[in-house]
Each structure stands twice: as structure tokens, then as C-alpha cells.
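Slides due. Your pick:
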Amino acid sequence: MMIGTIPTCFGNFTAIVMHEDKGLWDYHTSENPYVHYDKDSYGENVQVYVKEIELEYTSTLRFLYSIDLSGNNFFGEIPEELMNLSGLQNLNLSGNKLDGKIPRNIGKLKSLESLDLSKNDFSGSIPSSISDLNFLSYLNLSFNHLSGRIPLGNQLQTLDDKSIYIGNNGLCGFPLNNCSEDVDELPKGHEKVGNMRTDDSKMLWFYSGLGMGFVTGFVGVCSILYFKDSWRYVCFQLADRVYNKIWVTVAIKANQLKKKFHINKFEGNA
């Protein structure tokens, strides 16, 4: 087990920086801190943990660029120099005591397919540049102290497993979907304007459809009554009945109120 800070010289691995097929650098918890496998040494069989799966590499070793420092006692921040390893495919720093923030330029690791930073003490927000990792198919940021909204975009949208972010009580957004307000995803100064424009557009379409529906229905009924004599007579008769019924009802109520008024006035004079 190794202890201390991650050496900044790790960023000088020329084979990983230059994408050259010079072999595999895999740092792990073995007796030897690091081992370099030459591209012609096909007789070697090496087990490597990638995406939480133990894989055995033989003749394909020279195509894998991996740094695995998991399960040690490394502390401090991730060196910025590691972000120069543009050919790195697997970075596993889980199970250490690393702290600080995830490097904001982590998106420079363009070839990264697997990233495991779980079980550390990282804090702050997840850098938005992480969405630039177009080949990322495995991500684990669980059990840290991360907070803020989870970035959106590109390959990151396909990683919809909530366990990726478990143990970070301050995180929200997809796939957790526990943010109180969604307007934070919009640029500042445009949240309310954008919402108002959307609402106005919806209301405009609603009233336009309502008006067109009323006009269509009215024209349809008038057309039927104009060309269909029997329907027109029935409609007018119904209107007369309704009108007469309302008139009679109103007249009766008016007479009742008038009689009641005279009775109350007579009793008052008496």
C-alpha cells in the first residue's frame, strides 16, 4: 500500500501523452509500484480492473493505457499534470483520501473510457468539462462531498445510473432529478425571459385554437340551419319555448315579490 501525494511526474508519461504504442503503465497496489510492459512481451498475462471488471490482457497490452492507484492512502489533490495524458483510457483513484476539487480541465483526457474517483474526499462541483469525455462509458463519483448540479451533455447523458453519484448529498440534476429549480440550466439573465416567452407562445396558440374552434362551430351550425328547414323550425320552436318559460318564471317571481312587498307594507302601517 502506498501513501503520500500523487507525483506530478506522472504527467510526463510520454507514451500516454503521444498516443504511441509503447506499452502499458499500470499503477496498482502490488509489490512493484509500477511495471512497464514492452509491446513485444506477449508472453505476459496481466489482470487489470477496468470498469469494476477484472480483465486479462496478453497480446493487447500495448493498446491499453491505464493508471490504477485505487485502494491506497494517497492524499491531497489530483495533480494538474495528469490532465496532459490525453491518451489515457482508464483512471482509477478510488479508495484513497484525495481531497480538493476535481480538476476543471478533466475534459482534456479525450480518450478516457473509465473514470473512478469514488470513496475519497473530493468537494465542490463536478466540472462541466467532464461532458467533453465522448468515450466515457463508466463513471463513479460516489461517496465524496460533491455538490451542485450535475453537468449535462454528450456521453454523460447515457450514464443514467444513480449509484454513480450516491453518497454526495449536495448533488442534484439528471439522473437524480432532485433540484428545486430547473432554471439554473439557463444562462443567467435569460431564465425568466425564456419562461415568459414560452408561456406567451403557449397562450397565443391556445386562444388562436379556441377562436378558430368557435368560428368553425358557429359557421357549421348556421349552415345546417340555413339549408335544413326542418332543423331550423325545431330550433326556433325550442327557442320560443325556452323564452316563454323564462318569461313566465320571471313574471311569477315578480308578482310574488310584489305581493310580499305590499303585505309587509300593510303590516307595517297596521
About this structure: Residues 228-270 form one domain. The chain has three domains: 3-180, 186-221, 228-270. Helices lie at 14-17, 191-227, 229-269.
